[in-house]
Design brief:
homodimer, 158 residues, alpha/beta, 5 strands, 34% helix
């Protein structure tokens, strides 16, 4: 029997969100806005990232963008057909655009973002005529926990 | 007198668009959708990029995103306050979001994009309540030339 050197993840759907929350916690520990994202397919995690805009001096380094870029790099493709994205906060317009370009199958998110969200708030990008691929959207996963994490981060900084 | 080893650009505004068009032409030569972008400030070019989504297997590697990331990396900051972006095509929702996060001062673009543009078409991101910084927008620079470049690229591929 082959030795299992590689760490594998095999989780139920709610636990992918747990992994996204863990990424958000790491982001907070680095002094970044606590948002985390995971891309999963076939029952396992392909990529996971937290927000790194400050560390990288990169305004595009949102958790979703980093997770998408990493997943695409691993697969050598621009398209993540059949893969799902789990993210702790409703994606902004930039990330919603990237999710669409990446052809992600499903989007699961935690808290809604009435100030910057572009999925169920604001420009509702996936329902707009300029969106050419929309994922299935599932909102409100661990909603209270993900919202609380952000609130306490901003409260601590004030 | 110091020798001038460094190539410097000092151009009028219309010529920054010429530099963006040049980037679009390089993109076409690489087999990418011909879109180019330049970030300029204080009379000179800080960064320039063409679309590289295929080459990098990265759906976020639009000309605008690459130019913003490069400019931010050079300055060691997330914010390009006082800098302007020149791009050959109306930005999409993803790029409009990134332009806003980067706090770019002005956006100059060439052709309008009624299928995917999010500035004067579609979700008109900069006028939406989820946009917290909007650049001044100037559209239609070298409109015919930039539109023709895209049309002939897609015609050749059919």
């Amino acid at each position: 029997m082959a030795r299992r050197n590689q760490r594998t993840y095999c989780l139920n759907r709610p636990d992918f969100m747990a992994a996204a929350i863990e990424q958000a916690q790491y982001a907070a520990a680095r002094g970044e806005v606590p948002i985390g994202a995971v891309i999963a397919g076939n029952g396992s995690i392909l990529s996971a990232a937290g927000n790194r805009t400050r560390e990288l001096s990169d305004p595009t380094a949102h958790a979703e963008i980093l997770a998408i870029r990493d997943a695409c790099r691993q697969l050598g493709t621009e398209r993540l057909t059949g893969y799902d994205l789990y993210v702790t906060l409703e994606p902004c317009a930039m990330c919603a655009g990237a999710i669409s370009f990446a052809r992600l199958r499903r989007l699961y998110f935690g808290a809604e973002d009435d100030k910057g969200g572009a999925v169920v708030n604001g420009t509702r990008f996936f329902s707009s005529p300029i969106c050419h691929h929309a994922p299935e959207v599932y909102s409100g996963l661990r909603e209270l926990e993900t919202a609380r994490m952000l609130k306490s981060f901003f409260k601590d900084r004030r």
